[in-house]
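hiii so um. not sure if this is the right channel but i have a protein structure encoded as tokens and i wanna go backwards to a sequence. like what aa goes where. can anyone help
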């Protein structure tokens, strides 16, 4: 019987290739195949841009299309296809490292893929390696804490309804390209300090404090907002 390969879910951090763990780098140096999620096949993968400096130049890549859509049928089909490509490689004895931006357990496509792979693989065959989350990198860039003392921190995934959380002193809005106008309105009404961080650690990085009179159009998908404000 062929020896089965191991599957790794690797967090590669938010952008700076130095913000990746030693453990992830060690895996990238000896892995057989690096699986790279791409929102479109003709686009570059951000995760690969981060990881590639740590890989041997002849590393084998497996590009997996993970479309940016809310269509469940399309998504399920993409995850199924990706899972079966990975399983084929594992069954042929190769080890596979799937790359994920930031941390794999935090708003990542990895979770959906993992659920499918868990049905076919033993727990010894799967290893998830954590990574530095974008929100931690953004807070570090501006030398601000995410939360201190006994304060709570709430992380919202770019959904409407930010207003419900006026009693929370520390907010992080991920995927803020979806609800930026509402977030700006909320900052206007509640005051405090708000920072918009785009592509932290990547080419095109932009970090700026938002004023309470901010008007803004669209922002890059790889953007988040950190909010710290007095509690009412
Ligand atoms: C699908 S989630 C991935 C989160 C990631 N797993 C993490 O641990 O940070 C995508 C969202 O993460 C945030 N994000 C990821 N990388 C970022 C970066 N380098 N700079 C700013 N925001 C980033 C943005 O809010 C983006 O919409």
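sure thing!! here u go:
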């Amino acid at each position: 019987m062929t020896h089965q390969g191991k599957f790794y879910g690797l967090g590669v951090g938010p952008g700076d290739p130095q913000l990746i763990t030693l453990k992830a780098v060690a895996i990238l140096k000896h892995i057989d195949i690096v699986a790279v999620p791409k929102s479109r096949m003709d686009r570059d993968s951000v995760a690969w841009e981060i990881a590639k400096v740590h890989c041997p130049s002849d590393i084998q890549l497996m590009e997996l299309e993970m479309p940016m859509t809310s269509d469940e049928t399309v998504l399920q089909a993409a995850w199924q296809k990706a899972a079966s490509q990975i399983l084929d490689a594992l069954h042929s004895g190769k080890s596979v490292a799937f790359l994920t931006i930031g941390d794999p357990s935090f708003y990542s496509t990895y979770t959906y893929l993992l659920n499918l792979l868990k049905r076919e693989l033993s727990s010894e065959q799967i290893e998830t390696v954590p990574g530095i989350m974008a929100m931690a990198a953004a807070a570090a860039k501006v030398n601000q804490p995410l939360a201190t003392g006994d304060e709570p921190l709430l992380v919202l995934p770019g959904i409407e309804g930010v207003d419900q959380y006026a009693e929370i002193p520390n907010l992080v809005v991920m995927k803020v390209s979806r609800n930026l106008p509402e977030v700006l309105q909320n900052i206007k009404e509640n005051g405090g300090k708000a920072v918009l961080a785009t592509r932290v650690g990547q080419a095109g990085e932009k970090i700026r404090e938002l004023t309470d009179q901010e008007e803004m159009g669209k922002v890059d998908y790889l953007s988040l907002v950190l909010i710290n404000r007095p509690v009412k």
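oh and The helical segments are 22-30, 46-51, 72-91, 110-118, 134-141, 180-190.
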